[in-house]
Structure formats: C-alpha cells, structure tokens
Design a protein that fits this description.
The complex is a heterodimer of chains A (698) and B (255). Chain A has 698 residues and is mostly helical. Helices cover 53% and strands 5% of the residues of chain A. Chain A folds into three domains: 59-156 and 168-264, no CATH class; 266-410, Orthogonal Bundle (Fumarate Reductase Iron-sulfur Protein, Chain B, domain 2); 417-697, no CATH class. In chain A, helix 28 links the parallel strand 8 (660-663) and strand 9. The longest helix of chain A is centred in the N-terminal third of the chain and has 32 residues, at 118-149. Chain B has a single domain (2-206), classed as HUPs (Rossmann fold, 3-Layer(aba) Sandwich), CATH 3.40.50.620. In chain B, the strands form two sheets. Chain B has a nine-stranded mixed sheet, with helices on both faces. In chain B, a hairpin with a 2-residue loop joins strand 7 (140-150) and strand 8. Classes of the chains: A mainly alpha (698), B alpha/beta (255).
C-alpha cells in the first residue's frame, strides 16, 4: 500500500470526553509527583548548607558519564549491571518516545506539523519495540535475581535488631511494586500495540515486530473481532498504571530515577578523604550533629538516594564482624527519621516495631547521635571507606558517621580506652602515652645518625607516625626503612620530638578540636623544618597530610614510602642484587589503596623484587579493612564476633600456599601479626612489611 | 546550690622523676603537670550533682605550674566559674598553707558544699579537706565515694577497708574529701577547652595571710633503695631444708 503514509492516531476511536478524562487523569498524576518532590526539596532546604556548586559543568558531565554507562553498577556485579543497564536504557528510550508523542500530538499538531509519520515513524516504532523488549528482559533478570538468586546483600535483615523488633516487609513490597508497575506498563504497552495492529492490519506495522507478533497471536486465538475493544481496555489500563507509577515516584524506590543523578552530580570527589571543618558559629553549639536539621542538604539527599542495593552492607568490615553497624541501615534509619519529622513518609517503608525508644516522628529531646543511631553503631565504623567505594549512587556515609561521632565526643559518650588514648594524644602528642622526647629513640639502634630536619636540611622529611615510632615490634621495621634509604644514599631526616600524631584517626574519631590542635602544631614545626618533600611510612598520616593539611595552610608534596621506593627503583637508586622467589599476597591499606588510589606503586616494587604476587579477591581499591582505622585501634574490640583481620588472613590462606602476607602500613603489621596468632594460623603464613622484602633483595 | 571544687596540679608520671641537688625536692626543670586524679573525681561528682539537681560549680586552685589549663578544662567540662588564688607559695605547697589560702578566699564566697580530692599523688597527705573544714568551722567526711543531696543535707558514702561502707548525713555547708566519683571523669573535648580559654573568665583572688604552722618538713627525698636481691634455692625438700640450715648457720642465726 504505497499510498498509505505510515503513522498512527494517538487517541484512536476516543471521544472528546474520554480524551478530556485522560488529560485530567494525567494532571492529577503529575500533581502528586510534583507535590512529592516539592516536599522532598523542602526537606533538603531545611538542612545545613554544603557548597557543592563549583565546577557545575564538570559535575554534570561526570554524573552523565556514570549514568550513561551505568559504570558504578557494573563494577563488582556484572549481572546486576547488565539488568539495570537494560532497564535504564529501555526506560530512557520509552520515555523519549513518550515525550516525542507528547510534543508531536500536543504541541506541533497545533502548528500544523506532524513528526510521527513516514520513515521517521517506522524507525521510531522499531527502536521503541526493540528497547521495550530489552526493558522487559532487564526487569525479568532483576526479578529472577531477587526472587531466585537472592544474593546476600539483598537480604534486608538488620544486624542490630532481632527479628520481630522491626518491620521491613514494606521494603520488599516496595521493590515488587516497582518491578510490577514497570513490568505491567511494558507488557500492556505491547498489548495495546498488538491489538491495534490486529484490528487495522496495516502492512508497514511489521516495523513494530513485537506488536506484529502479538497481533498474530491475537489472530490465532480468533480474537480479531474483539481487537478494537481489547485495545480500548488495555489502553486505559496502561494509562492508569502509568499515572499511578508517576504519582508513586517521589514516595517509593522509583525516586532514585530522579534523585540519584542529582546525588551523583553533587558528590564530593574528596568525600571521606577530606572531612568537613566545623564552622566557627556551629562550633559554639558544640561539635557535630544533634538534630536532623544539622545534616547538610547533600546528606539529606544521600539518605533519599539509597536504593537498598546492599553493596555497602556487603562490603562493610564492621557489618561482617557482627557489630551493630550496617552502612545501609544507618542511611535508611536516617531517611526514615528525616521523613517522619521534616519530610513525607514513603508509601511503604520500614517500621521499628519492638523499639519504643526509637524516636520516629519525635524531635523533642532527641539526638540523632545516640537516639536515632546508637553510639555502639557509630563507634563500630573503621572509616575504611568501603561503603563509599561500593555505593553506586554517590552516598557519602562516612561524613555523616563522623559528624555524629563528633557529637558523641562533645558529650563525652565514648569508650574509656578511647578516652585515654585521646587524652594521651592531647597531652603528649602520641596515643601511647609516652613522653614526647622518646619519639626518636628508635633511631638509637642504627649504626648511623638520622638528621634532625629542624636543625639541618635534608631532601626528604620522614613523617614516621605514632605506631612506627613507639611500638617495639614496629621500631625494627622503621630501622629497616632507614637502613634501606641510607644504603641508597637518600638524604632524609626526622622531626624527632617535634612530630605529633598527624591527626588522621583523631579526626575520624570525631575529636575535631584535638585534630585542629595537632595540625596547627605539626604545621608550625614543618614550616620551620628544612626539607623539599615529605614521605611517610603511615598511610593514615599520608592521607591527612595530603588531603586535609592544605585547608590549614600546610600544602606539601608527600609520598607514601611505597611510592618513594618505586620512584627510587625506577631511577636506579635502589638496585637489587638478587631476585626473591617467595609466594606472597599484598594487602592494600585502606588509606593508601582506597582513599588515595595508590595501588600501582607497591605492586611495582613487588614486581621489581621478583616475588610471585597472588592477589586476594578483595584487592586494590576494593581492599578489606584490618579493623584498626578510624580510631578502632584505640577501642575495646572484645565484643566483636570475628575480627576483620582474622577474616582477611583466612582470605589470604584460601589462595593456597602463600609464604608472606605483605603489608605497607604499621597498623596492618600489628593487626595481622596478631590475627595470624589468634586465628591459629601460626607457621602457615607470616606477615612481612614490604620494606623487609626490599632489604632482603638488596 | 553552690558547689566549690578546690583542685591542684601534681607531677605527670610520664616523665622519669629525679631528685634535685638539695635532696629534698624533685628536679622540676622538665616536669609536666596534670590535675590531681582525686580532684578530677571531686569535679566529676560536682558536675553530676549539677546535672542531677542544678547547681553552680566553681573550680578554684592555688596558682601553680600549668594550673590555667586544668581550670579551663574544668570549665570545658561544665564548671561555671574559675578562680585562681594568687600568692607566694613556692612549688611544693604544704597542705596547711593550701588549706589556709583556700579558707581565706572562701570566706568571701557563697557555698553550700565543698568537694575536693581525698588526697593527692604527690604528698599523699590527705589533709586539705580536713584542715579546710577546720578553718571554716564546717563538718567533714573523708574517703567519700557517693554524694546524694536531700533536703539541704548531704547523704554520703564513706569507704572503709575490708569492703565496709558507712553512710553519713552531713549538714550543709560541709567539706567532703572525694575518693571516687559515681562515674569515670568525663572527657573534655579540645574544642570546648579552647572555647573556655576564650570565653570563660579566670578570676584572680589574693590568698591573704597564709602564715600558718606547717608542722612537718621534708628531711630527705630518695628513690626506693633495693637490697642485693633474692637467692633462689632449688632441689628436693630435704636439700632445700639443708641449704636453709647452712645459710642460717653461716650467718650465725642458728644456735
């Protein structure tokens, strides 16, 4: 039929009244949608300010790039990534298709212009049909994943409450309503098309292959005479489901469609690496967050952005070791609380039934750090950043956790061991409670003198850190570093008793005032010292000096010693006399591998040594915490079910016959040496600092 | 309710102690000082009473090395007022002088309860609370572990040896020597200490006449002297017994 121009009528066989009803219906759906997001927007406006408006173009491009590729969802989970990618792109194409219909029918029509006709219509039909099918395949994959595969991270069971003390069936209902609505919308869309094609049988409609197939099925059931009325019923059913879906978006899991792009755009690239300072004004009211409005708008947006994918829950060492902390539940509890007090509740959410003390909807006398989130939960965090790394939607869990910890510190609600450590740091500049002048005494075991950079110039200033300076087991390793560098002819010196704890973990504990004091003291000494660059053996010090000191006026070029070693090997300043043949695995320190993405330098050193490197499943930026970070090393860990360090040793042993568990962090050395003993694996694997292997190969 | 907490500084044992050339005092050149632990408990108990039933807590101390830091820390923890008593005390202030100086100053202040540490690690004298009560003519209980305020009286617990406890009713105003607060002394966040330094006034008051008989003086200060050590005797019971007999005979202790 060459004289028929391919197109279709939008309101096929509809009277004016029916069309009017449809428009009224659409407006109601859209109004509920707008109201919901207006309430959410109002909620964010009640939060504290957070400056995230710099480089707006770059931010949007970054978010677009992540979204277009679904890269953060593909990471670590190809199945979920693919399923989401199909649903996402299918949704995008169907959405664009609907917008084109709207523009064509409700705008261009009045200008006497008709877009959806001819070959454009045919291509439009084909593309939408194909993506419609892929959309349904993606949904089916997700339903199979949730219904049958059931990966552990999708289990909504809480780690801090017993079954019956909370009600989360709402979350599952929400998930299935979301799938259900999208699936019904997709299926009914195809049915409408099929019934229309069955009724009219225009040859060009083969460009809608799925619709054509349904038309053929309609035929084979002998329903052609019913096709027109079936079309009308399914059309209305489809329209109603679509409007219900649109109205539900701001109140359900579907809100992530809108919010998560925004959240990704406003993510701080230095989140957790550089914690926020406390403004002078806020400090007067005491440190940290007390009420829900103390959270910034970005943090309130974080809470709403969570899709409950459970990746942080799965990655968290505190969660794995049986503490009450699950980063997912922390975020969801804050959402439930924020919605119940300053927002609008989700249509179906969680309830904390058995806990009459949990302050849903209450603000009077309620502190977020303590009542909404328990102190035990907050203190369990090792600040390893696995949650932020795992989160596909840019949630910055750690910032909220530290802000709430600040409040606990301000109110003095803390473990007595931690209190003693903080007082030691305050009084003596180190957590060991040792006199300041003892900091450099480990150098006495060397047969050469190490420069004091406060008195004579050196190329490198070595920031040693507390553990490597004071722990007797680690002093030996510090001396090894000194010997290796001395043999390589490197000009380096120390601050001796001028050095204080760098403050990285003090800050992550939430003792911001003490952190500021340490930074000021250290910078004052560094300003007077004579050196070109800094290197440190401690990844924790590395992080804070690199990322946080600049805000306090201390901008320095700093290496982690593995970076310096790699550089010296490249430059030929360190030469090995023999190759090593050990079978080893390397543990990336959180503050080096994940925080600062330095995963290559240590591996370059290992490669130069010739050792056989066997990677653990969790390596590189996906490393697993030893459990010592964020001040955990200063707290009582006797209530932990299984220490993360012990789990990690098992992970290494599962690789088979491994000689050495190689570390590049003083705290790791003590944590894993202990873990080898406490897990009963002495003799099976030995913990070595990378510098010990370097010395062996010299 | 006005509670006054006299505090003092003691040497921080993190540094090795040395006796000075006179042989009667510590070499104070490199010493660090910190609040006397028992005074910290007295302050904690006062702050707990303040939180429980409302009170005005005042920390007071004689001028000495690093005392400002401890006073501001008290303010950071919740003390409402700080007083530094000035005068020419020297470095090791005898209890009699300290008590007299405090009593002189307290005469011009209003108070209902005075809580101070039962003793201090430096002189182990334990007399300031007693003497202060004497100078002010007030009732006094020592080695107190718990304070309850009821109808203008203080119900206090006193710890005796052998696990015995005594309960006393003390008319107010009164002086209590605190052994331990009801909870571990709280942490003072550095930001609050710094804020206290900026915003809390440290009032200075002169000690007045403190010429009182001190009663005791330090004759000699020395580190514990050790003997040559022990000799281990090994072997069977009979051998050991014989060896002991030999040793006793050698030293002329056996007849």
């Amino acid at each position: 039929m060459p004289d028929v121009v391919p197109t279709r009528e939008i309101f096929r066989n509809f009277s004016f009244l029916l069309q009017l009803i449809f428009y009224i219906f659409s407006i109601v759906g859209m109004a509920i949608f707008c109201y919901g997001f207006y309430k959410r927007f109002r909620k964010y406006c009640r939060g504290r300010p957070a400056y995230r408006f710099n480089n707006l173009g770059k931010r949007i491009m970054r978010a677009m790039s992540i979204m277009a590729r679904n890269s953060t969802i593909f990471k670590q989970d190809v199945y979920a990534g693919l399923a989401h990618f199909l649903i996402f792109l299918g949704f995008v194409f169907l959405f664009i298709g609907t917008v084109i219909v709207f523009i064509d029918h409700d705008m261009l029509r009045f200008l006497g212009f008709h877009l959806l006709r001819g070959s454009f219509y045919l291509i439009f039909s084909l593309v939408l049909d194909v993506w419609g099918v892929l959309f349904l395949i993606g949904l089916l994959m997700m339903m199979i994943r949730r219904g049958f595969l059931r990966p552990p991270q999708l289990d909504y069971a809480r780690v801090d409450r017993k079954e019956g003390e909370y009600q989360r069936s709402g979350y599952r209902v929400d998930d299935w309503i979301f799938f259900g609505l999208l699936f019904v919308i997709g299926i009914t869309g195809f049915l409408i098309e099929g019934f229309r094609i069955a009724a009219d049988r225009l040859a060009f409609e083969v460009w809608s292959p799925a619709g054509w197939l349904i038309a053929n099925i309609t035929d084979s059931f002998g329903l052609v005479s019913w096709a027109n009325s079936l079309h009308a019923y399914t059309w209305w059913f489809h329209a109603i489901v679509v409007m219900v879906f649109i109205a539900s978006i701001p109140f359900s899991k579907a809100m992530h469609i809108i919010l998560d792009f925004v959240n990704l755009a406003f993510t701080d690239e230095l989140a957790a690496r550089r914690l926020p300072r406390i403004p002078e004004e806020a400090m007067k009211k005491g440190m940290g967050y007390q009420i829900i409005e103390d959270f910034t708008w970005k943090e309130l947006l974080d809470f709403d952005s969570c899709t409950k994918c459970g990746r942080c829950h799965d990655a968290c060492p505190a969660c794995a070791s049986g503490t009450p902390l699950s980063p997912r539940d922390l975020i969801l509890d804050l959402r439930t609380y924020a919605d119940s007090t300053i927002g609008l509740n989700e249509w179906v959410g969680q309830r904390l039934d058995g806990d009459s003390k949990w302050p849903a909807g209450k603000t009077e006398g309620v502190t977020v750090a303590g009542d909404v989130i328990s102190p035990e939960t907050l203190w369990a965090c090792t600040t390893c950043m696995a949650c932020i790394e795992a989160c596909p939607v840019g949630i910055e869990h750690l910032t909220s956790i530290v802000q709430m910890r600040r409040r606990l510190v301000d109110e003095g609600k803390m473990d007595s061991m931690l209190q003693d450590s903080l007082m030691n740091v305050g009084d003596y500049g180190n957590s060991f409670g040792q006199p300041e002048r003892m900091r450099g005494t480990w150098t006495q075991g060397l047969d050469f003198a190490v420069k004091d950079v406060r008195k004579e110039a050196a190329e490198y200033l070595w920031f040693v850190g507390d553990y490597a300076s004071f722990d007797p087991r680690l002093q030996d390793i510090s001396r090894t570093v000194a010997r290796v560098l001395s043999k390589a002819g490197i000009d380096f010196g120390l601050l001796y008793d001028g050095e204080k704890n760098a403050g990285n973990d003090v800050r992550r504990v939430g003792e911001e005032g003490l952190f500021e004091m340490l930074v000021e003291d250290n910078i004052a000494v560094l300003q007077k010292a004579k050196f070109k660059e800094i290197f440190t053996t401690d990844p924790h010090s590395f992080n804070t000096i690199k990322n946080e000191y600049p805000e306090f006026g201390g901008g320095y070029s700093i290496y982690h010693y593995t970076g310096l070693l790699a550089k010296l090997i490249d430059e030929g300043k360190i030469k090995f006399s023999r190759k090593l043949h050990h079978r080893i695995t390397y543990h990336d320190p959180c503050y080096l591998g994940r925080y600062n993405k330095e995963v290559d330098a240590p591996r370059r050193v290992l490669e130069a040594l010739g050792v056989g490197l066997y990677e653990m499943p969790r390596c590189g930026t996906n490393t697993f915490c030893c459990g010592a970070g964020g001040g955990r090393i200063w707290m009582d860990d006797s209530d932990i079910e299984e220490r993360p360090s012990e789990m990690r040793i098992k992970e290494a042993l599962a690789l088979g016959d491994i000689d050495y568990f190689v570390v590049a962090c003083p705290k790791d050395f003590t944590m894993y040496s202990d873990a080898v003993k406490t897990s009963g694996n002495e003799g099976k694997i030995e913990v070595k600092d990378i510098i010990q292997l370097v010395e062996e190969a010299l | 309710m006005n509670i006054i907490v006299p505090i003092k500084q003691v040497t921080d044992l993190v540094e090795e102690l040395e006796v000075d050339a006179s042989g009667k005092d510590l070499n104070r050149e490199w010493l660090k000082y910190k609040i006397n632990e028992f005074d910290d408990h007295a302050l904690e108990e006062a702050l707990c009473l303040k939180e429980e039933s409302g009170a005005n807590v005042m920390a007071i101390a004689l001028d000495s090395a690093d005392i400002e830091k401890s006073l501001y820390t008290a303010a950071a923890k919740g003390a409402d007022k700080l007083i530094k008593v000035t005068g020419d005390f020297g470095e090791a202030i005898p209890s009699h002088v300290a008590a007299k100086a405090l009593a002189n100053v307290l005469e011009s202040l209003e108070y209902d309860l005075i809580l101070t540490g039962v003793q201090a690690a430096d002189d182990r004298d334990g007399q300031v609370a007693v003497l202060l009560a004497h100078y002010l003519g007030l009732p006094h209980v020592s080695v107190v572990t718990g304070v309850n305020l009821q109808d203008g009286k203080a119900i206090v617990h006193k710890e005796y040896s052998g696990g015995l406890m005594g309960e006393f009713e003390v008319d107010l105003p009164g002086v209590l020597g605190i052994q331990a607060a009801r909870q571990t002394p709280r942490y003072a966040p550095v930001s609050r200490v710094r804020q206290a330094m900026r915003s809390t006034e440290l009032e200075e008051m002169p000690a007045g006449d403190v010429s009182v008989a001190v009663g005791t003086t330090v004759q000699r200060m020395f580190k514990p002297e050790t003997s040559d050590g022990a000799q281990m005797i090994e072997g069977s019971a009979e051998d050991v017994a014989n060896q002991i007999l030999n040793i006793l005979s050698e030293r002329g202790l056996k007849q």
